[in-house]
Design goal:
Strand order of the largest sheet: 1-2-3-6-5-4
Largest sheet: 6 strands, antiparallel, barrel
Helix content: 10-25%
Radius of gyration: 14 Å
Structural class: alpha+beta
Amino acid sequence: MATVPTPPDDAAFAERRAYPRAEVALPALLQAGRDRHAVQLLDLSAGGAKLDCLVPLAVGTAVTLDCGTLARTAVVRWRNANLVGVCFDSELEAREISALIDRSNALTAWRKTRE
């Protein structure tokens, strides 16, 4: 059985990333082939995203991430339990990242008012 790559979780790796990451908490849909799956967007950068995904997608799977104003094709680069890292086929622009961060912050604030 082939081993599945897992993301290194140390500071040295984070410093080598090509793009800074922004933490978010947004529901999204991930399409793989004809199947659409509910996922949670946990962080993102211009080049990719980390998702909480219950579906066991193989590394190398082509997907489309749909999160409201964001719809990007990507490839699964790593998987570790329910966490999945995807690499976008085309970079996000700064305004797209900013809009998603703003949506995440607004959703978090709204949820707090509902508690």
